[in-house]
Amino acid sequence: MKTWLAILLVSSIAHAASIVEFSGTEAKVAGVKVLSDAKAKLPAGEVPLKLSGAGIRTKTKLLLTFNVYVASSYVTDVQALRRAATPVEGVRQQNVKVLKLDMLRALSAAEIRQSFEEALELNGVNIDAAEIQDIFAQWKSAVKTGDSITMIGFEEAKEDKIVIEVGGKTINSKGKDISFDFWKIWFGKGDDGITSLQKLLVGKE
Amino acid sequence: MKRFLILSSILALAACGPIRDMDKMVHTTDEMRDNTRELNEGMKKTNEAVHRQVLVISLQQLMAPENTESLSSPARMLPYANSFAEEATPEELIKEFHTLWTDVIYGGETSKVPPTPEDVRLRSRQVSLRAASAIAAMTPADKFAEIVRNQILLKGEFEETAYAFALTRYDFTREYLFKSVVENRRDQNVQTLHAAVKYYRVMKKIASMGYADKMEFPIPVFKAQPEGDKLVVVDDVLKLNTDDLAAKGRSALRRFNRELSKDVLAQPETQRLLNELQ
Description:
Low-confidence stretches of chain B: none
Mean pLDDT of chain B: 92
Largest interface: A-B, 16 and 28 residues
Order of helices and strands of chain A: HEEEEHHEHHEEEHH
Helix content of chain A: 25-40%
Radius of gyration of chain B: 30 Å
Strand content of chain B: 5-15%
Strand order of the largest sheet of chain B: 1-2
Distance between the termini of chain A: 54 Å
Order of helices and strands of chain B: HHHHHHHEEHHH
Mean pLDDT of chain A: 90
Strand order of the largest sheet of chain A: 1-2-3-4-5-6-7-8
Number of strands of chain B: 2
Structural class of chain A: alpha+beta
Oligomer: heterodimer
Number of helices of chain A: 7
Radius of gyration of chain A: 17 Å
Helix content of chain B: 55-70%
């Protein structure tokens, strides 16, 4: 009984530790529930965000396409994101942004790291930068189907900050353009799977 | 004179024994030669039968439903692709690859418009592509070099297939073999570095071959996509894309640099291997 209470307590603390709450109308993408609104609970106060779009990240290997995760993007100004000349410029105009990845297959921590590092490098980000390496040094969790990764990007004390919630752990890092650089993985250059997903995340017709 | 005749007769009689013995010996030698020839032929037939048996069993298992359940992670196909590639001659390899490749390209003919995955045997042809690619990737370097020499450089009967062989060898190595070492292993050591470098060399070799324009194949009715409320199949293209090769190498290099111990990293052999991933 004590053990159960302890588990319940720990899980409720872990749940409560999330700084993003999702609400609103529900849609389904590949069986994953996607909600229309989010609220980021930041030190400066609560910030409401709107869903700009959601879609499936697919990977193609030898002409076979696999679903990897469902990505949902929440921003403070959806119209600014859609009006911008490029998705990356649209991301630049967001005060706060949230990206939620609901896994449709398991990935090891090394797989996630390799894939993020390659995408960052493709977008001209210096992955040897201390703040980027700081994130990877903290990222030890593998993910399995059904798990989710939530990323929050915001400015705090005139510094760009990123918080990543994965596997019950919270990863923090800050530095020049850190969250902006990370968002380039989905809103910058990428393979065919990212290009298709990007259109859905921006939600442009 | 008399004495001479008697002596000759005695000598002739005395010689009869060895001559008979020699005849016998010649006869025995002939018999042994025949037996050896028969034995050699028998052994040759046995070896051929064993060779064919290895090929047939490997191929059967490679394509077996229980080993092709998962095409996203075709680990259970690998041992049989490996035994086939190790046993087969370069000629047998390209011929078997050609058969599977033909099924991939032409095995989906149908008169249905628009066709469904079932109409074009999509799943079965995907198995053929995975099997062909696994064989190509598992082919030892010397046999692959012979295929390139005989089919591409010397314009062999299977020249076009040889380009597909090289292309699928590259893709399968990148997506499964190299990745399985660099991304899927929990721990890294010198042996995993050796394996990563071996697979990286395979990719570099093909990337530097200079036949990229030949390594592009339209594949009819091979991509399933939703149309309204049903799934239909459209054409797809398989082409060589080596754009991310250098990034994959750098990414692997970072991981080995990060995870190998200082002692291991300090060894010249380790540094030589790491340089190959640059």
